[in-house]
Design brief:
This protein is an all-alpha fold. The protein has one domain. About 90% of the residues lie in helices and about 0% in strands. It is built from six helices and no strands. Helix 4 packs across helix 5 and helix 4 packs antiparallel against helix 6. It starts with a helix and ends in a 6-residue tail after the last helix.
């Protein structure tokens, strides 16, 4: 009985250590995800507690945005979504080349979450289940993939910024070919962002017709 108990405790400790190691290894991604979630929550809260003037302005902007996208071709919508991702990726890429870029990189997922949270909060507060359905079917699928790409960019940029900081302090960088690897990884992430943009354009074409606001 004691042997079984010891084995159980050993297995529990092993699994606990395994999950702790996963968390530690992915701590940067988890922190960036938490910052994005904070941005979304903040955006939804701003809309919930905002004045009617702010809500009306956001509604006008959203209506114009929807009207523009409905008039465009699927390729144009893909390009528009891709451009949004490229802007955020360019910002994190540049900050990654700065020795003090880590605090600036950390702001990017908050801003991305803030925008998505404000739109989601507006849709739900104004249109309830209809707005929630629009978010789930049209807004979120492509955004989810694009956000994953952005968080990956933030992770790579933080590592690069840390290497830059070491160089500035006259210390050897962790990777001698860091710049090459940095650019190569961004190219891979760019493909993921393109998949997100394509998903966004396809979901818009497939489900937009079912929603009337």
């Amino acid at each position: 009985m004691e042997l079984v108990k010891k084995r159980t405790n050993f297995n529990n400790n092993k699994y606990f250590s395994y999950y702790i190691n996963i968390i530690v290894e992915n701590r940067r991604n988890l922190i960036m995800l938490a910052l994005f979630a904070f941005g979304m929550l903040l955006g939804a809260t701003i809309i919930k507690d905002s004045t009617s003037a702010v809500t009306v302005k956001l509604a006008e902007l959203f209506d114009r945005y929807r009207e523009l996208r409905n008039q465009q071709s699927i390729f144009s919508n893909f390009c528009g979504s891709m451009l949004t991702s490229l802007i955020f990726m360019a910002v994190t890429f540049i900050f990654g080349l700065c020795s003090i870029g880590v605090p600036l990189i950390s702001i990017v997922p908050v801003i991305r979450g803030l925008g998505l949270g404000m739109i989601s909060g507006h849709l739900y507060s104004e249109y309830a289940l209809n707005g929630l359905g629009y978010s789930l079917l049209v807004l979120y699928p492509g955004s989810l993939i694009s956000i994953i790409a952005l968080l990956m960019c933030c992770n790579e940029s933080i590592l690069m910024s840390q290497d830059m900081f070491l160089v500035m302090m006259n210390k050897p960088a962790k990777n001698s070919s860091a710049i090459k690897m940095y650019c190569a990884r961004y190219l891979v992430i760019l493909i993921i962002a393109a998949i997100g943009a394509a998903t966004d354009a396809i979901c818009l074409l497939a489900f937009e017709r079912f929603f009337e606001f």
